[in-house]
Amino acid sequence: MAIIIDGKELAKKTRMNLKIECDELKEKGITPKLAVIMVGDNPASKIYVRNKSKACQEVGIEYEEYLLNDTVTQKELIDLIKKLNADKKVNGILLQSPIPDHLDINEAFRTIDYRKDVDGFHPMNVGKLVLGQDTFVSCTPYGVMRMFEEYNIDLCGKNVVILGRSNIVGKPLAQCCLNKNATITICHSKTQNIEEITKKADILISAIGKSHFVKSDMVKEGAVVIDVGINRGEDKKITGDVDFENVKNKASYITPVPGGVGPMTIAMLINNCIKAAKNQNQE
Ligand code: NAP
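Above: the input record for the complex with NAP. Below: its predicted structure, written as tokens.
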């Protein structure tokens, strides 16, 4: 029976430590501030944004929200980002995805000042991650890496298999694991014989968004299994990508959904906001 990695508890502990750092900054007259831009009315985005706002409040980060109508033009979006770039009181800027199709999200991410890019999506920060330099690591991969650290799961020499190659999870997570000297395989929708690959994983991470895709016969005995997926069923119940009930009997460590990677993602956003405020006040 696997050890359950308690993301909720670890995130709480992380936020408490970050609150101490935030209080220390405030004593020096620095109040970290995050600006969040949301375009349109996506219900899942609303929940994510609400949770981010709650976490900021708890830690003492100033939080400002810009809710844009889904008819907003690219120029209006870019102009808002430029205004926030120029605002010295704003330390972090986050553009909540998805945004409507008529907008170019890559141009928007590129426009965010890379020193305020607390989501780690700017090409400069992605490049620095690839080069192994200090940077803003995107929040979900960073949260997973913190879990490995906390539970003393050493990646050096391990066979890590990642399901999913998105720019926000799969690819940066692969880079983070490579930076820790793991051997990485990334699988995606065109991968053949996926079970043969997953069965060889010492550490299996799923980020594809398919409920209960990872069954116990796809997992090696004693593997560490990290479930990034968040899937909403018709009954509104949230499930992960992993068949938790069966896989937990085979894995050595496993993350639940909910209560696993999700809370750590938000804690790492707070971490990046405080880091941004510190960096900007050292300059
Ligand atoms: P995404 O952009 O849709 O990417 C999904 C990836 O999974 C793609 O690379 C896709 O392959 C691959 N894929 C889809 N079906 C597959 C299959 N049957 N076999 C193998 N690979 C398959 O998704 P995302 O934004 O990375 O998010 C992935 C999941 O993580 C979602 O459930 C999302 O809600 C969740 N998520 C959770 C957090 C958190 O904080 N816990 C944060 C972000 C995302 P192709 O590239 O070939 O299309």
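Notes for the reader.
The longest strand covers residues 33-39.
The pocket of NAP is lined by residues 140, 163-166, 168-170, 187-191, 194, 207-210, 228-231, 261-262, 265 (CB under 6 Å).
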